[in-house]
Specification:
Protein name: Mannosylglycerate hydrolase MGH1-like glycoside hydrolase domain-containing protein
Strand order of the largest sheet: 3-4-5
Shape: globular
Bound molecules: alpha-D-glucopyranose
Strand content: under 5%
Order of helices and strands: HEHHEHHHHHHHEHHEEHHHEEH
GO molecular function, one term: Glc3Man9GlcNAc2 oligosaccharide glucosidase activity
Number of domains: 1
Family: Belongs to the glycosyl hydrolase 63 family.
Number of strands: 7
CATH topology: Glycosyltransferase
Pfam families: MGH1-like_GH (PF22422)
Structural class: mainly alpha
Helix content: 40-55%
Largest sheet: 3 strands, antiparallel
CATH class: Mainly Alpha
CATH architecture: Alpha/alpha barrel
Keywords: Glycosidase, Hydrolase
Distance between the termini: 10 Å
Length: 440
Amino acid sequence: MSSRLTGDETALWQAAARVLDANWTGCGTVPSPGLYPHLWSWDSAFISMGLARHRRSRAERELLSVFRGQWERGLVPHIVFNSELPRFGYFPGPDLWRSRSVPGTPRDLDTSGLTGPPLQALAALRLHQCADAGEAEHSRAFLARLYPLLVAQHRHLAEERDIGGEGLAAICHPWESGMDDSPSWDRPLSALDLPPSRYAPLRTAGGGASAGEDHDRYVRLVTLLRDARYGTGQLRDEHPFLVEDPLFNAAYLASTHALAEIARLVGRDPAPHLEDAARIHRALLDRLWDGECFRALDLRAGALIPVVTVASFGPLLDPDLPPPALRTLAELLLSARFGGAAGYPVPSCDLQSTSFDRTRYWRGPTWINTNWLLWLGTSAHGLTVIADLLYGATLRLVRQSGFREYFDPFDGSGRGSHDYSWSAALVMDLLAARRASHAA
Ligand code: GLC
């Protein structure tokens, strides 16, 4: 089979390259022009993997720019602000977070005070894996430079976020999941007290929380963390939102395996990372698997969150997932609740859930990054039929609607912002990976 791109694939590749070139700022890539004008940590992880196929030096620069925002305790903030832009041009901007007032944070730039799905080690390793022979030495030196920063990031998660004590990292805000308004957060958010004098929730006609009220809850959670100077005591003892999310922890596990591999490549000991990986693997099964799928665990309520979302499939990234769990997840993915009834899988929420909404962000639409993660996981497990389905559906989405932020899962129409960087970057990675596998 040919290892070259077809004419149509070449056109797609070039269109994706134009998006990444246009969104490059000189040291990183904005998720989309206008709407998201700073750097987001998980976006940059995805984007770097596309850049690695296109402009390698930018891929490295992208990851390093994210780590410029790293706090001394190892936290990798989910947003690094571009100080050349007006301070009030974006909300939640630097004045909400006040990162520079916290000891041990970067002095020369502003960041958020939350983290995001820890995909950076996975991205760094993928950059290395797609380096050609002439780039290998430089690539190894880059990994050696990044390794201590990645170790600090993982240590922070293990020491400050393993609040359940069994190996998983808890998120303390929906934004840390990357799936901001997922229905998984409805229950823990509704348990949150909002001071009525400071926040004025608008009620929807049905009496439920409006998007505005959710927004107040997001901001309330940030001010609780900020007012405690992002301290671990408040987090552990008082913070009202603490959830062990399957996608966040699957990213953590995949990156821990990648860290072990990076350790080997740079002449360090992989054993501690492999021990960490074994612990995360065990805890995912013991704590989040209920026999049907993985669910988020609300640590404050002490209960699994009933709604099933695309995050439930995140542990497909676990290379040691036991075969029965793998089979059960694959069946659910292909069932009428997900891929089986959507023209363009995978919807972000169970189609049969009352929370499903085909138009709203993480409450139903399909996203390129989650499709890509599931493609990666199913490919690694040899589930080629599902991997091919995801590959085809993902390319069909962008061919039909362009590099949109997210898409209607029934008709593939585009929604949210245009020229969205990770949609372009991950399409490049998909095309390049397919070409490489045909060449092999
Ligand atoms: C949206 C997405 C989040 C992403 C951010 C920047 O908030 O929900 O996952 O990181 O945009 O693209």
